[in-house]
Q: What sequence folds into this?
């Protein structure tokens, strides 16, 4: 059930209607049924794997809570009499007991994720290197959303062990948490104590006409991003990335820029669609993008791009690594020998290296992923930090004040170019292809002809109608840029539109409908792309 | 240990970790109020506090503390 299909719109309409008809106490069952139907529309077998993982998580969370409660009641009875050492020892024993159940969930979730996502890649590699005949899992289809729900469920048991959330008593609600149809395809990563009170709360929900209009505007904007920008500009990106040997210089740069816009419009468009649908039911989904291209450095870019993945990894991987005894010991001993600053930096960088390698690997099995959105990002961030004094001096010499418009423009452009460079490897089938494509970027004398060559190709990828839409496509990209600029300035565009006179609002609604119907990529004859993050 | 005494010790730790003698933290101080207190320095700061008070923050406390006031609550819990 593609999000750009009429089936999906019908499915959402039925779900929202049912959601409001059913009494508050049972609303979550509508969401569970909708999530199961949505999941089964993609994969029947996958729902069993998801359910099994969720049930193991459910039982483990209950056990973890019971162990934690046991320690707390002992503490309440013995706080006055027990020594600090005794309390520490009890706490440690309780935590280590809890960790066994966390380890069970991590092993099951990561084990299944590895089997479905990475095993084939490694088995094929071993077969090639050692001429062995290991099973390469060719027939195994990646269950829908496994990269997302595995991490969410791990986060849930860890939160229970950390005392940040209560263990759920109803197993069906844990299954709903794992399979929730608005986030199963490509996130965002929901935290249990943020999402579930909204899904299972028993307060009466009302949808005002004003809120309905705001939600529909958000959904429509998401569809414009996906169907009129991402899928259209994606044709240019696909043409250049698939046939990079035919192009050079600015032609390659055009493809790189087109992919950057496609990826952003595709992923953030999806988020707008599901977040708007959530608003229709009074459910607030976490924000996953905050105008990432207006960032002063790559660290900031990643705090604004796929925000919930970064936040998840920080809380469940990065902090535990840095807070581990090995890293704390390393920090202390290096601080003594190399000085405080350097001593602190080395373990932090080592932790970051592990984190970025995992982020890269999470995106897919292949060195191109590990490099482009992993190691290269680590290098960008570390180099950015090391060269900060130098760039500050340079900015002072050029009289570029911190926070001034010229400096912010330079920083935004620099960030965008660095990401475009990284995404060449991300969007290439292999690392070698990415490297060859970048080689083509620096070949030939820059000329307008290198750009027009992309549009004058006889390739089927760039169809005749696509060329005719080009001016409108650029207009849509411009609107996307202006919308982000306004969001960055703190303007609430939807609210502003709704405050305008009736005629203005009608013109906006008509423009949205006209844009999607006329310029959107849809229908049987159009090669509509799945969302890019769908495969992760 | 009294709350005021904890704050006094905390100020020393903050000044040492962030190399800034002018820092004075209060109940409502958050990471935004102290230059350099980002997610990377957060762990270094907590490690220094753990050493100073001879306690150990749990991961739940590490990720959930919203301001210095909550940090002091956790320190009192652990002492």
A:
């Amino acid at each position: 059930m593609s999000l750009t299909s009429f089936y999906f719109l019908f499915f959402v309409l039925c779900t929202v209607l049912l959601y409001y008809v059913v009494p508050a106490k049972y609303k979550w069952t509508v969401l569970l049924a909708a999530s199961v139907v949505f999941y089964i529309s993609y994969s029947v077998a996958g729902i069993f794997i998801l359910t099994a993982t969720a049930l193991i998580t459910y039982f483990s969370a209950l056990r973890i809570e019971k162990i934690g409660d046991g320690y707390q009641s002992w503490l309440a009875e013995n706080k006055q009499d027990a020594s600090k050492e005794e309390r520490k020892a009890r706490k440690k024993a309780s935590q280590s007991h809890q960790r066994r159940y966390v380890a069970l969930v991590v092993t099951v979730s990561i084990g299944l994720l590895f089997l479905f996502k990475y095993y084939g890649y490694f088995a094929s590699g071993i077969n090639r290197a050692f001429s062995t005949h290991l099973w390469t899992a060719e027939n195994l289809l990646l269950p829908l959303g496994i990269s997302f729900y595995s991490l969410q469920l791990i986060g849930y048991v860890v939160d229970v062990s950390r005392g940040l959330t209560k263990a759920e008593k109803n197993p069906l609600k844990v299954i709903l948490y794992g399979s929730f149809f608005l986030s199963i395809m490509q996130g965002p990563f929901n935290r249990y104590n943020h999402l579930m009170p909204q899904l299972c709360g028993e307060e009466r929900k009302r949808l005002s006409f004003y809120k309905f209009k705001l939600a529909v505007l958000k959904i429509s904007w998401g569809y414009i991003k996906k169907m009129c920008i991402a899928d259209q500009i994606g044709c240019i990106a696909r043409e250049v990335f698939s046939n990079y040997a035919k192009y050079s210089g600015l032609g390659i740069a055009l493809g790189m820029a087109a992919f950057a816009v496609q990826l952003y419009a595709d992923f953030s468009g999806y988020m707008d669609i599901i977040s708007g649908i959530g608003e229709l039911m009074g459910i607030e989904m976490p924000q996953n993008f905050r105008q990432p291209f207006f960032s002063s450095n790559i660290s900031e870019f990643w705090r604004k791009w796929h925000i919930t993945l970064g936040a998840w990894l920080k809380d469940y991987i990065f902090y535990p690594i840095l807070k581990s005894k090995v890293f704390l010991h390393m920090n202390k001993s290096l601080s003594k020998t190399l000085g405080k600053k350097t001593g602190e930096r080395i373990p932090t960088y080592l932790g970051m290296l592990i984190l970025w390698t995992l982020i890269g690997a999470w995106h897919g099995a292949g060195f191109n992923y590990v490099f482009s959105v992993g190691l290269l990002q680590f290098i960008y961030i570390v180099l950015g930090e090391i060269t900060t004094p130098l760039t500050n001096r340079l900015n002072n010499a050029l009289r570029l004040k911190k926070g001034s418009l010229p400096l912010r423009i330079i920083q935004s452009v620099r960030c965008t170019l660095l990401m475009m460079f990284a995404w060449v490897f991300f969007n290439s089938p292999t690392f070698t292809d990415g490297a060859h494509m970048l080689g083509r970027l620096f070949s030939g004398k820059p000329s307008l002809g290198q750009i027009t060559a992309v549009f004058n190709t006889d390739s089927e990828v760039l169809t005749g109608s696509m060329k005719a839409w080009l001016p409108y496509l650029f207009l849509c990209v411009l609107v996307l840029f202006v919308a982000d600029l306004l969001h960055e300035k703190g303007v609430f565009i939807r609210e502003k539109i709704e405050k305008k006179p009736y005629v203005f609002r009608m013109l906006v609604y008509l423009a949205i409908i006209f844009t999607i119907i006329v310029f959107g990529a849809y229908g049987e004859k159009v090669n509509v792309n799945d969302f890019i993050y769908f495969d992760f | 240990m009294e709350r005021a005494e904890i704050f006094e010790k905390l100020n020393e730790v903050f000044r040492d970790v962030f190399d800034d003698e002018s820092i004075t933290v209060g109940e409502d101080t958050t990471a935004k109020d102290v230059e350099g207190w980002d997610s990377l320095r957060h762990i270094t700061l907590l490690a220094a506090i753990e050493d100073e008070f001879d306690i150990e923050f749990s991961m739940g406390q590490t990720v959930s503390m919203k301001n210095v006031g909550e940090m002091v609550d956790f320190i009192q819990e652990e002492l």
Q: What stands out?
A: Residues 84-130 of chain A form the longest helix (47 residues). Residues 299-427 of chain A form one domain.
